[in-house]
Specification:
The complex is a heterotetramer, with 2 copies of chain A (326 residues) and 2 copies of chain B (354 residues). Chain A is an alpha/beta fold. Chain A contains 12 helices and 14 strands. In chain A, strands 3-2-4-5-7-6-12 form a 7-stranded mixed β-sheet, with helices on both faces. In chain B, β7, α9 and β8 form a beta-alpha-beta unit. The chains are: A alpha/beta (326), B alpha/beta (354). Bound molecules: thiamine diphosphate (TPP) (2 copies) and magnesium ion (2 copies).
């Protein structure tokens, strides 16, 4: 079984989906001969041809809109937005069309499209290349928002997203693209959507996180384990619809929860998780829920990026506070 | 009305405001039965609009956009299409929708605030009404690319307003359609107004057909009050698209004789005199004059059409008013193909009324 | 003092700001001769002329983008988006430009613009005319999101928004436009931004809400008062930056909180409020925090709208649950 | 290189690839001192790019977009401007920025990931680099409208790429500028590629200048490797705008001789042969040949320019490398004019390191 990094796993899943299902087409800027600026679509153009791997003009709104039209016709378009910094022009299409084509036609038409985009900071990228806009997208009813946190989950979740009958925004943590490798079997097996992944179990504390912050959170959990504190780490994976049960169950057991994300604190998806706990696990909570998140500031340029992104130390400090609370 | 274009933008008219043919008519227009079919469709559209406005005025329908005076644009476009083509209308193209088999009942349901109105029993691949102006233009490109990929000889037809031509969505869509030769036809219903904004304040372009130049695709103007011309021009564009020669942009010149919608009061911003000046060019009288000349269309025939149409719409209105709202649960049931656990819980709560 | 409804108060504030400050310009679709589809800009064209009351072509992205350019030049543009259903194309300009022009130039350029838009449901409007997207906008750092809930607050908050040196999205609850009247002095006095309004005070329960839902919430509070239950009602008014203190203080006092909003539950701004409580008022909470909100579904068309919008009964039921919790 | 346009799109060239004048030169170009000024600016730009790429390659700068081969576009555009005009560049127009007084140090700071790089000490009303392609086009219209409202005789100049012409933002902006006669000039740096997408896959339009037709504004082509022609054409457009005659669109034909950015590997998608074919047309050798002919420009002068430029850039690089990062607190301090209570609390926390 090949050891793949996350972007290779994405590439593998795309190739697999295209090979298995002739309805799958890939479109986006530079996805063709260039293979995508991160190489996520590398080799697809040569293998599947220009009919199915389509270099688009530079127009994100239309990329999303064209995908809506294709999807309504029964294709399975997988559109790439080169960076989430450029995903905003697609929001109109996502809110007003993709997410509601099924409901507005009572199921006559549907929109099985995937919008992939590299997301998040930490790679010293240029301005507008490091943001984490997942909460804006996850607030859209009728849409799914999925963020993988490992090569294997990227492979399985992307296959699931592509075969899902409804629209999915699939945000790939840029920082993870080449950060870790793991064996990924090209078995065509999808992983379940709408389910969290419990990455480790411990009875003292629940961490809830997603995307690249899984790294820092797991590292923090390891450090705590070294001191005899056992933490559960939950990777949301699908942010919306939320796997409420798994989170609430875990916190009912541990009584303590730290939520970790890169996006700005206020209105970040961590708010939704914390709200669920305030609503459904209040009596079990032994300590305040703490969110470790980006600040409510614009993402700084690379030289100050490290001050913005939550690191292991901030996660640990939050864990301390929650653990010490009595 | 004459074309407003520069010499390089062709302008087509087949039947003048007086009903007289201008040059050779296209084949279909030499067949009186076919002309009568078009005529009935125009009348149905105008009568439907009147019915809908009446329902709205009496509080039984939501805000509604009549197509008064512009019926020939979407009827002509739809009449040029094959059933297997896909129609992507804006919110003022009920004429074309009716031609394609969408029922008056469905239209009333939609404008009455019921999603079932977009679950067309015929024309199942046609798009529902698009309210966000111009945002359906990229869909047409996507639909067309699906046809192209599957090697189907089908075409996507998108109708949009003059105001829509200012939206980036439309520019992006035309450009993509052009570079990919997507089998598609974009028809602009240039009714000269976007709510209170006249086309001269919408763009400095002398014609809207020339928006095509930016995309490197053919653009032309047609007399949008001449259903024969609209159909002929759209038929040619469809043939081109079907032959693999890519998209076209057609500007149909017409005029919005009514308010923007039932929520609008056009007297705030435009002169009655301007409106009156456009009445002599409206599409129905024009075709009626033509039919009288070429096929002896008489008062009796006219009355029969009006009666049949009225009866049909009366039945539709009754059926509409008799349609109970959907069960509350349907708020949830079409959000996703299958109800996620999350939403199942909300649905339960909602039905329990808590 | 004139009794004005909310849209008249908006109109009055616009006229006042234009009269007081020559830098204020109004732009948008149909804002000129027509006076706006809701008449918010009625009379401004005649009074201030076409240089300062600008009918735009139909292009929301550019309306926002032009406002950014004007604001960078020191004008005070007040742009209207005809309905929030059409605000999505402006998000790119809000995220990537308006909200960060100051920080990216270290204050050399700024963006004192206002983007006004009627928002929310309940008026049996056509498709796409009834949504409440405030949470997506309130998540944008560098931006303010303000929602008035009465004619007087509309007047004072809009004046504040226009004179604020940073960009403000000002969402006007369509349902309130003509629903209530109150005396509004045209005194040019701004109300404070970044502050909640405590509309009534009571020690048993805190309601947090904003916009049109203030009506239902106040009605619910009245009904409770009839039964001897005294509720505090907090109108957020400025959603972002959030007036954290006022909310937390109140709930520390009452121990019980119900949050009410129209937008879909998940990722709605109520999540942020609930999260703050889970973090900063946990030990004071005597009952779970309950959110009464729109469902995580697409806003239905008018015939089912009433099933979607939270009504007084749902607010009361939530209050019961919270009050009965022991 | 010749214009790719249709007969209706004018094409201007003043100095050919061999350095020979084509027809009458504009006044400014008959002044050798002025030509030398332009020449130095081209050399400074190319040297700056080389320096920046070297810094990036050695891990001391972030991703950087060199303008190799395209220097004449933004230098020419900026040289046509008055100081009080406003420049709105994309991310590849350092040539124009340098001309306008942005310092090499500021540019290095920006590309090195430091916001202070956009706090220009000169050109204080110019916009910072715009990374989201085409999204600055509407800003230019807003800036221009501010000038118009205040009756100032100033013009907004926006430079964008060929890829940007596909963005709806640009179409909307051109259209608005047109209808309002906003005093603005839009210059397309058509370097034939948008990362891996050649212009023929970007649009079916034969020229990008014809995008102007959709907006009803003048559009023309210029040899983008001829700094004299670019300046002359932009000067004319500026004069028109200043006179109240509205916006123009200018397509400058040039070629991206390098990779898209330091993060790109163009060999994946384009042939070296194509690149080599374009080298003989690049702007610097061309102007040097011309200077040699008309002003006896010689090796000594050339070397002096190169040395001065190198020294200047060396000092800038040293200053850049010696600049300590901003204090962490500045992450908070420019989000709003005054720190909201909310953010003050976060700032405190962050500085306490919790
Ligand atoms: C994107 C968007 N902005 C604003 C509106 C509000 N609105 C509805 S129709 C209309 C004018 C449309 O003009 P035009 O495209 O000429 O079509 P017409 O109404 O004349 O058929 C406007 C501004 C909308 N529906 N969509
Ligand atoms: C809206 C947007 N989409 C995608 C990108 C990523 N990107 C950066 S440059 C570029 C190509 C730009 O091409 P062009 O406009 O021709 O300018 P050039 O790079 O050739 O100067 C792309 C796709 C971006 N910066 N902005
Ligand atoms: Mg119109
Ligand atoms: Mg380019």
């Amino acid at each position: 079984m090949d050891e793949l990094n996350l972007v290779q796993a994405v590439n593998r899943a795309l190739a697999r989906a295209m090979a298995d299902d002739p309805r799958v087409v890939v479109l986006g800027e530079d996805v063709g001969r260039d293979g995508g600026v991160f190489r996520a679509t590398d080799g697809l153009f040569a293998r599947f041809g220009e009919d199915r791997v389509i270099d688009t003009p530079l127009a994100e709104l239309a990329i999303a809109g064209v995908a809506v039209g294709m999807a309504a016709q029964g294709l399975r378009p997988v559109a790439e937005i080169q960076f989430t910094g450029f995903i905003y022009p697609t929001i109109d299409q996502l809110v007003n069309h993709a997410s509601r084509l099924r409901t507005r036609t009572r199921g006559r038409l549907a929109c099985p499209m995937v919008l992939r985009s590299p997301s998040g900071g930490g790679i010293h990228a240029p301005e507008h290349h490091s943001e984490s806009p997942e909460a804006m997208l996850a607030h859209i009813p009728g849409l799914r928002v999925v963020i993988p946190s490992s090569p294997r989950r990227a492979y399985g979740l992307l296959l699931a997203a592509i075969s899902d009958p409804d629209p999915v925004v699939f945000l790939e943590p840029t920082r993870l693209y080449r950060a870790v490798r793991e064996p990924v079997a090209d078995d065509g097996e999808a992983l379940p959507l709408d389910r969290c992944f419990v990455l480790r179990e411990g009875r003292d504390l629940t961490f809830v996180t997603w995307g690249a912050m899984v790294l820092e959170t797991m590292a923090a959990a390891e450090r705590l384990a070294g001191r005899g504190v056992e933490a559960t780490v939950i990777d949301l994976a699908t942010l919306h619809p939320l796997d409420h049960e798994t989170i609430v169950e875990s916190v009912r057991g541990t009584g303590r929860c730290v939520i970790v994300h890169e996006a700005p604190l206020s209105g970040g998806w961590g708010a939704e998780v914390a709200a669920r706990l305030a609503e459904h696990a209040l009596t079990a909570l032994l300590a305040p829920v703490v969110r470790v998140a980006g600040y409510d500031t614009v993402m700084p340029l690379p030289r100050l990026e490290a001050h913005y992104m939550p690191g292991v130390e901030r996660v640990l400090a939050a864990a301390e506070r929650v653990l010490e609370f009595a | 009305m004459t074309g407003t274009g520069s010499p390089s933008i062709p302008f087509t008219r087949c039947i003048g405001p007086d009903g007289a043919a201008v040059g050779d008519l296209p084949d279909f227009a030499r067949n009186p039965a076919e002309l009568v079919r078009l005529y009935r469709a125009l009348v149905l559209t105008r009568s439907f609009d009147a019915k809908a406005v009446a329902l709205q005025r009496t509080g039984r329908l939501g805000t509604f956009a009549s197509s008064l005076g512009q019926e020939a644009v979407s009827v002509g476009a739809a009449a040029a299409m094959r059933p297997e083509d896909v129609f992507l209308p804006s919110f003022r193209e009920q004429g074309g929708q009716l031609w394609r088999g969408v029922t008056p009942l469905e239209l009333l349901l939609y404008w009455g605030g019921d999603e079932r109105g977009s679950d067309f029993k015929a024309a199942r691949e046609d798009f529902p009404v698009c309210v966000p102006v111009g945002s359906h233009a990229p869909h047409a490109v996507g639909v067309a690319m699906a046809f192209k990929l599957r090697r189907e000889k089908r075409v996507a037809v998108c109708v949009l307003g003059d105001g829509a031509t200012s939206k980036g969505d439309v520019a992006e869509a035309l450009n993509m359609a052009g570079v990919w030769k997507a089998p598609s036809v974009f028809v602009i219903n240039n009714n000269r107004w976007a709510i209170s904004v006249p086309v001269a304040r919408q763009t400095a372009a002398a014609t809207l057909a020339q928006k095509a130049v930016a995309a490197g695709i053919p653009g032309e103007q047609v007399d949008g009050n001449d259903v024969v011309a609209v159909r002929a021009v759209v038929e040619r564009a469809l043939a081109r698209a079907r032959a693999g020669d890519g998209p076209s942009l057609i500007e149909a010149l017409t005029y919005r004789l009514g308010d923007h919608t039932t929520a609008d009061d056009a007297s705030r911003y435009r002169d009655d005199a301007e409106v009156s000046a456009h009445w002599p060019e409206e599409p129905i009288a024009r075709l009626r004059h033509h039919l009288a000349t070429v096929a002896g269309w008489d008062k009796a025939q006219e009355e029969r059409v009006l009666e049949e149409t009225a009866a049909l719409l009366e039945r539709a209105a009754e059926a509409y008013l008799a349609t109970a709202p959907q069960p509350a649960a349907t708020v949830f049931d079409f959000t996703y193909a299958a109800l996620p656990a999350e939403l199942a819980a909300q649905r339960r709560q909602a039905l329990e009324g808590s």
